[in-house]
Design brief:
The chain has about 325 residues and is of the alpha/beta class. The protein contains ten helices and eleven strands. Helix 2 packs across helix 3 and helix 8 crosses helix 10. The protein starts with about 30 loop residues before the first strand and ends with a strand.
Length: about 325
C-alpha cells in the first residue's frame, strides 16, 4: 500500500526481471496490444517489443518487460549528452544551454530559500551547472560512473553514482529533487518516489518530467513517436497517471507545464527523422566529417524550428508531448 493507503503503481516481486505478468498500476493481467516496435533511435537491439494498454486502468507499458541484464545492453555507455572540444561541439553546447533554460527557470521559480537540489539521472551535469551558476547548491546522482565523473570534471558538479533508494544522504537533505525523464525508465517508480519523499525536507519540491502519451504526436505517429523510446521506456504515462502516482506517495501537484524547448520540438523532429538526431548519431558511432556533421545538425535544427508551431499548439491545449510537474511534499 502507498502512503495514502490507496493502490498505486505496485512494487511486486520481479521488478525489472520480466517475470511480473500484471499491470504495474492495477495488477490486471488482460491487455490490448497497440503495436510492435523496436529500438529505432540507437539500434541497440533488433528485438521486437509490444506496446500494450491495460484493459482495466489503460496504463500503457512495454511487453514483455526486459530483464535487468537486457536493460543494461539497451543503454549505450554514452547515453547522455556531453560537449566535445570541436567547433561543432561548442555550437551544440550553446544550443543545449539555451534549451535547458526552460528547465532551469521552472525549477528556480519554485525553490524556497535556494535550498540544495538533487538531480536524479544527472548525466554530464549540464542542468545542474546552470543552476549552480545561479548560486544554488547542487548534487548529481546517476547510475553511470562515467556520467558522474564527467559531471565532476567538466561541469564541477558534485555527483554520486548510486540508485536513489540507496543514495548516501540522510533524510530531509534536500529542498528540491528533480526527476527529469526518469520515471518512464522504471518498472517500479514508487521506489523512487518513496526515496524522494524521505530525502526531501518538509514542504520540499519534487520536479518530474515524463513524455505524455496523451499527446497529439502519439495519436498521429503511433510507434514512430520518439517519446516511446522502445525498449528503454517501460511505462508510458498520461498526465493523470503521474498525478495519481504522486498523490499516492505523499505529494501535492502545484504546477503543470506541457511545453519544453529542449524536448517537444526536438522530439517531433526525432520522430520524423531519427537518423538526423545528433546524440543518436554519436551513440551509433556514425562516421562524419566536420562539414557533414555541421550540415546534418543544421538540417535537424531546421526541422526542430519547423516543428515549433505544432508543438506549441498541442501544448497550449494541454496535449503537449511532455509534461513537467512541480509537487510539494506533504
Amino acid at each position: 500500500m502507498t502512503k495514502s493507503g490507496k493502490a498505486g503503481l505496485r512494487d511486486l516481486p520481479g521488478s525489472h526481471s520480466g517475470s511480473r505478468k500484471g499491470c504495474p498500476r492495477c495488477d490486471h493481467e488482460s491487455f490490448q496490444v497497440l503495436f510492435t516496435a523496436s529500438d529505432r533511435l540507437y539500434r541497440t537491439t533488433t528485438r521486437q517489443f509490444q506496446l500494450v494498454e491495460c484493459e482495466q486502468c489503460r496504463l500503457i507499458r512495454l511487453h514483455p518487460r526486459p530483464s535487468a541484464k537486457e536493460l543494461r545492453r539497451f543503454y549505450p555507455e554514452n547515453y547522455w549528452w556531453t560537449a566535445d572540444g570541436s567547433a561543432v561541439g561548442r555550437l551544440e553546447g550553446l544550443y543545449r544551454r539555451f534549451v535547458l533554460g526552460d528547465h532551469v527557470r521552472f525549477v528556480w521559480s519554485g525553490l524556497a530559500e535556494r535550498a540544495p537540489v538533487l538531480d536524479v539521472g544527472c548525466g554530464g551535469g549540464s542542468f545542474l551547472a546552470a543552476l549552480q551558476r545561479r548560486g544554488i547548491r547542487v548534487v548529481g546522482l546517476d547510475a553511470s560512473p562515467r556520467a558522474a565523473r564527467v559531471a565532476w570534471r567538466e561541469n564541477a558538479v558534485p555527483s554520486v553514482c548510486a540508485a536513489l533508494e540507496r543514495a548516501p544522504f540522510p533524510p530531509e537533505s534536500f529542498g528540491a529533487i528533480t526527476l527529469f525523464h526518469v520515471l518512464e525508465h522504471c518498472d517500479s517508480p514508487q521506489v523512487l518516489l518513496e526515496a524522494a519523499h524521505r530525502l526531501l525536507s518538509p514542504g520540499g519540491r519534487l520536479y518530474v518530467q515524463v513524455p505524455n502519451v496523451a499527446c497529439w504526436q502519439f495519436l498521429l505517429l503511433g510507434r514512430r513517436w520518439s517519446g516511446l523510446d522502445v525498449p528503454r521506456h517501460l511505462i508510458d504515462f498520461r498526465t493523470e497517471d503521474v498525478e495519481e502516482l504522486l498523490a499516492n506517495f505523499g505529494f501535492r501537484v502545484l504546477r503543470r507545464k506541457f511545453f519544453s524547448w529542449r524536448d517537444n520540438p526536438a522530439g517531433l523532429a526525432t520522430s520524423l527523422f531519427p537518423q538526423l538526431e545528433p546524440m543518436a548519431r554519436r551513440v551509433r558511432g556514425v562516421r562524419e566529417s566536420i562539414p557533414g556533421r555541421l550540415l546534418r545538425n543544421l538540417l535537424y535544427l531546421g526541422v526542430v524550428a519547423a516543428a515549433l508551431p505544432f508543438t506549441a499548439l498541442e501544448a497550449a491545449v494541454g496535449a503537449g508531448s511532455t509534461v513537467m510537474l512541480e509537487a510539494a511534499k506533504q
